[in-house]
């Protein structure tokens, strides 16, 4: 697959804001507005999609309407980036409606996390365009405390400035569950969301990839279930490394295994390095991970870094 780097963002550019699937703008209107204000203060203009402030049960609209919102911004030459407002649970409902023909000829930055990581990986799989697992408008930019310094450092520079390499700043929570070195293209996101792509035409090519994942409010036995599915689907036979996020509300059931114990059992027989405790996903501090970009892991030097620019 040819990897397509989208153009960097410049102040004054127009950012299209779309629903991640759930009607979260209606649930948190103050946080939503604060997020828009953050983008304005950074010098960006915003356009809001038609379904963004609507509700259709647990969705923002019908699957066709939400998909048309996303496609409208992807194919609009005036919109230079697309940002998901929040998350949800059913972003995969949009997949069958996404006509991405021509998008790789005029690529743009797409940013999201949680359930929209389904769409980030699917778009990359079909087009080769690099997408960005990074802050959400509502939950991060709209946070009363704003984006944390750590998040800002690992976000704006990646989408505004081409750079040949980028080293993620380690935190005390980093732990090498399995040591070693690896390199490969980044793929992943929210675990349960990426699981919905397995066995579909949207499934990423995991060959020689660094698979990153995180989740929220799943007990360890539920994570075990999902990871076993990935293993039995052959994903672990194909990846070169794994990065695990700081999980939120994912405690083991009483008397159950810890995350580390479960991971060591699930990956028994595999030699790829595993870095855990990385701030990504549902934490306030988070790194931005460009899906499709070559990265490397090195336990000896405690480094996780990008090996090429995410934008051009």
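^ Assign residues to that structure.
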């Amino acid at each position: 697959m040819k990897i397509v780097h989208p153009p960097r963002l410049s102040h004054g550019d127009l950012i299209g804001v779309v629903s991640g699937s759930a009607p979260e703008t209606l649930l948190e209107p103050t946080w939503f507005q604060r997020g828009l204000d953050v983008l304005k203060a950074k010098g960006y203009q915003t356009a809001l999609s038609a379904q963004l402030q609507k509700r259709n049960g647990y969705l923002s609209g019908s699957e066709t309407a939400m998909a048309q919102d996303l496609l409208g911004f992807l194919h609009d030459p005036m919109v230079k980036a697309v940002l998901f407002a929040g998350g949800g649970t059913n972003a995969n409902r949009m997949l069958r409606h996404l006509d991405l023909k021509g998008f790789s000829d005029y690529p743009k930055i797409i940013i999201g996390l949680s359930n929209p990581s389904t769409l980030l990986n699917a778009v990359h799989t079909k087009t080769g365009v690099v997408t960005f697992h990074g802050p959400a408008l509502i939950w991060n930019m709209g946070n009363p405390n704003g984006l944390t310094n750590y998040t800002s450092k690992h976000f704006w520079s990646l989408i505004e400035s081409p750079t040949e390499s980028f080293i993620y700043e380690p935190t005390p929570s980093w732990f090498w569950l399995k040591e070693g070195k690896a390199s490969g293209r980044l793929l992943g996101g929210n675990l349960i969301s990426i699981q919905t792509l397995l066995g579909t035409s949207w499934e990423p090519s995991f060959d020689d990839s660094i698979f990153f994942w995180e989740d929220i409010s799943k007990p360890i036995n539920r994570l075990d279930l999902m990871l076993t599915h990935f293993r039995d689907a052959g994903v672990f036979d194909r990846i070169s490394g794994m990065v695990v996020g700081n999980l939120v509300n994912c405690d083991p059931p009483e008397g159950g295994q810890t995350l580390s114990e479960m991971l060591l059992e699930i990956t028994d027989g595999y030699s790829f390095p595993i870095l855990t405790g990385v701030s990504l996903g549902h934490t306030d501090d988070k790194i931005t991970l460009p899906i499709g970009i070559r990265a490397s892991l090195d336990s000896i030097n405690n480094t996780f870094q990008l090996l090429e620019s995410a934008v051009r």
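The two ends are 18 Å apart (CA to CA).
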